[in-house]
Amino acid sequence: MMLRALFLLLISGTSLLAQSSDEFTIRKIYDKALAEGQSYAMLDYLCNKIGARLSGSPGAAAAVEWSRHVMEDYGFDSVWLQPVMVPHWVRGQKEVGRIVNSKKMGTVELSVCALGGSVGTGPEGITASIVEVKSFEELASLGTKQVQGKFVFFNRPMDPTQLQTFTAYGGAVNQRGSGASEAAKYGAVGVIVRSMGINPESYPHTGGMRYATGVPMIPAMAVSTKHADLLSRLLKDDKGLSFYMEMHCQLLEDAPSFNVVGEIRGSEYKDEIIAIGGHLDSWDLGQGAHDDGAGCVQSIEVLRIFKAMGYKPKRTIRAVMFMNEENGLRGGQKYAELAKQNKENHIAAIESDRGGFTPRGFTISAPDGQPEKRARIQSWKPLLEPYGLSDFSQPGGGADIGPLAPQGVTLIGYLPDSQRYFNFHHTPEDNFDKVDKRELELGAASMAALVYLIDQHGLK
Amino acid sequence: MMLRALFLLLISGTSLLAQSSDEFTIRKIYDKALAEGQSYAMLDYLCNKIGARLSGSPGAAAAVEWSRHVMEDYGFDSVWLQPVMVPHWVRGQKEVGRIVNSKKMGTVELSVCALGGSVGTGPEGITASIVEVKSFEELASLGTKQVQGKFVFFNRPMDPTQLQTFTAYGGAVNQRGSGASEAAKYGAVGVIVRSMGINPESYPHTGGMRYATGVPMIPAMAVSTKHADLLSRLLKDDKGLSFYMEMHCQLLEDAPSFNVVGEIRGSEYKDEIIAIGGHLDSWDLGQGAHDDGAGCVQSIEVLRIFKAMGYKPKRTIRAVMFMNEENGLRGGQKYAELAKQNKENHIAAIESDRGGFTPRGFTISAPDGQPEKRARIQSWKPLLEPYGLSDFSQPGGGADIGPLAPQGVTLIGYLPDSQRYFNFHHTPEDNFDKVDKRELELGAASMAALVYLIDQHGLK
Predict the structure, then answer these.
(1) What ipTM was reported for this prediction?
(2) Are A75 and A300 in contact (CB under 8 A)?
């Protein structure tokens, strides 16, 4: 009994020591991020000097070169490009969405934009009447008879009572993604989609849409939430309302682009890789500050902090700037394809693509049949909770790292507070001035702290 | 044994039922706040139609009338004013803070403002050289010999590595509050205080300062954090730097003002009062949106939500708009004085004065020797955590409710995320456009949920 007690004491002593050393290192990580952080300056450059960077655009090309240089200048062990062909969609000149004959208001210009991937209307535009629906079910119930030759106006709002705004987004976004093809089935000439914003706003949200095969490709436009409400009010008394849509967007040939990868090689287990990343491409309307400049600079900052602290990771740590998350996911697919081809062993991949907001926790998707990996990460909660990270309950990784799942990689998403995200997402407002310095830095430090713990203790 | 088991089953059944009814009501509170909330529209009016409302100003008088009308219009059972005399300090024309002879830059206008309560310089201003210090200890070590006839420049920054920005504020704010009198002890002619901002900013932060008795009252000015850094850099190579200060502020006679109180009377225990409040006064530079328009409209919103839900509280619920938190606390003192005089029994008082940001938790200060009241509130964490309220660990109430402490009242502070607060606090930037609608609404709902639980279950 005495021996056993002594043994337990030793064990718990060792564990306390490890705990206290982890506490110390994590505190140091946050100090580096908050007192000498460089994520905010990086984001300033990416947003204000480069700006919008839709796949295939000059901005995207500039961002590739910029991030390569930044990681080289920080002296990471290797920095390289992964070539990948990406869709190349262009918006063309400013869209027009106009009510032409309101009984109450006459001609009304609406705040609109083309949805990403949409076909244009041709230069002569399209004029037709409007039928409003809240769901695909309601659309189906109207049928060809009431839809043929008209615009379908999808006007189901994001549910404001959802605590997590991403849940509200999930409940509305099929209108944007599949609305055009659903409406085309019944002979619609185009769709007008209520923007994916949770508040009353005067600007539209763009975002990806896809055409189903076997139905005509009709143009798809987003309208600001305020103007969606206006349009709906006007339609109530004025069924003969006529709408003019003009969009000059088009899909060009695929264009060459790149993922950008920076790496610090592990000192003990260099073949075990921990990847952290965000996506370098953005939509074309704003600067892509929260979506996802924040995730990119935070990922670079993790490696920079390790170097600045003199921390030598046991495992190989990679910062990955994924290309083309917004309209194709080609970069994420390419990264996973190359990882498989090169027989790389990723033990974890972490994505930051929910904005540069104050930390709440991490989402975790462990590989099938390995719930202990999720439990392992959750066991670190006491070390991370003092930094505002208390939610480790939700599953999820991220779009770009998703393709790594079949390789048995534990996928993790950085989870910041979600309340303000959909004020900016895919809009002309997603600019540097909407990002708070400390919130951004805390995100970078939170990611670095988790990478440190995985690096030290593994996920076995 | 069988009977006992049955008894336990019944007990736990009842408790489960209560739990589930609480869950249901709390969900309803959040639905009301998020889908049909009026806090944001109230704040819009208070900020954009009334604006700044320093004690004794026309804005403060307008805010008193406005809040009285709002609560009457919502049909609360009683709404009344509590007269209170308040300090009446006025800023006068725009201050000047100017480096007059920089070797490198010549004349440099700095971004400055008078600290609240400061005397002016007289219209002729004051010109003198500058000595920079980081602390009162450093000031004392310099002594009269090196301070006499000069400006003292207090330049200790808020510590950016503090996770809670209020802790960083606490570590720096004595420079603002007592710096002038400390410097006057050694013959200084005035003080220049680094603004209480945690980030590099181009605008100054005002805030309260007090003169100690027995030392001369010298003028006290705040300088923006960016200009504090500039001034410090210039002083390094240029000890003969000369500074011109001109401030026209003055303290007038005390002015009449009011606390504004609205009440819904309890159906079962009407003599047990739960008070919730914020302070109606603000500094004069911005609109007082986060500080503390947010707390005021959230407090009114709690009672409005209860009425909108048809919830009849068992206990009496009061929304209190305290006057003069910023430069005197006369409203808070008057409220406590009247409560004592009228033998009122406050079982809890909740203050929201940390901005309209996303919820984190509540601070709790239970009366001496009654830790069970704190534990009671903490026991509700499972009901509140789904709404982002997970931190119930810190002590604290709020400045305005503090004077109730001697009456054995449990004091509670609404605790939102603190990262952005000191970007706005006491600055020209504390405006309506810096408040997020959902974050504000979640705060109101969080307060309503806690008031509901206290009302239903008491704190015994």
Answers:
(1) 0.94
(2) no
- Residue range A92-248, CATH number: 3.50.30.30
Structure tokens at A289: 């500050």
Model-level pTM? 0.95
Question: Closest by alpha carbon to A436, among B230, B356, B421?
Answer: B421
A421 min Cα distance to partner chain B (Å): 11
- CATH 3.50.30.30 residue spans of chain B: 94-248
- Kindly provide the b/e burial profile for residues B119-147, where b requires at least 16 CB atoms within 10 angstroms of the residue's own CB: bbbeeebbbeebbbbbebeebeeeeeeeb
- Among B31, B163, B198, the residue with its CB nearest the CB of A161 is B31
- Count the residues in chain A: 460
Helix, strand counts (H, E) of chain A = 13, 15
CA B422 to CA B196: how far, in whole Å? 7
Give mean pLDDT, residues B116-128.
Answer: 98
The reported pLDDT for the residue numbered A1 is 45
Among A199, A420, A442, select the one facing B419 at the smallest CB separation: A442
Q: Which residues on chain A are in Cβ contact (under 8 Å) with B199?
A: 437-438
Instruction: Tell me which amino acid residue B2 is.
Output: M
Q: Specify whether A325 is catalytic.
A: yes
For CATH 3.40.630.10, the residue range(s) in chain A are 28-88+253-457
Which chain B residues are closer than 8 Å to A386 by Cβ?
163
Contacts of B78 (CB under 8 A, 6+ apart): B261, B262, B263, B265
Is the pLDDT confidence value at B1 over 90? no
Question: Using one digit for the tens of pLDDT, what is the confidence trace for B147-189?
Answer: 999 999 999 999 999 999 999 999 999 999 999 999 999 999 9
CB-based contact, B196 to chain A, within 8 Å: no
